[in-house]
């Protein structure tokens, strides 16, 4: 593909990503998406190969944001400190669109574990967070990391459903105090 094609592909990917962040994955159709981002379904199919190819590219773009968060909340400290930084990031209202998109992708991946565009997304997410937490344990304890991830993910789901940040902040703080 030419440099111009690559630049256009990246431009359309970013525009499509912004559109999906705002509207979510549910019912994503090429025609309205293409119209909203100043393209056509044919151009999107040419650049991404198929709708599944576009979904894969959007999932990769979303995962890049997730990995940036993993890098940002890493740093020093023990598992409880890192868990606290992760929760603070997850609970921040400005991240809700990305987290709703993550939840949709995670759910699709679990519901459709075949070889479609969602395949492996959820498992890669778990592995990314587990690797971060493993870096901050003095003794390798996969069960402790899994429990922390389950608490954070459950609290996130409840936060997205209820918006009750105070209750969930207290719940996460209680778990972190036990680490």
Automatic annotation (TrEMBL):
| Alphabetic keyword roster | DNA-binding
Q: Where is the HTH tetR-type domain?
A: 6-66
Q: Which PROSITE patterns match?
A: HTH_TETR_2
Q: What domain of life? A: Bacteria
DNA-binding region, residues: 29-48
- Gene Ontology terms for molecular function: DNA binding
The signal peptide here is none
Q: Which SUPFAM superfamilies match?
A: Homeodomain-like
Q: What is this protein called?
A: TetR family transcriptional regulator
Annotated organism of origin: Actinomycetospora succinea
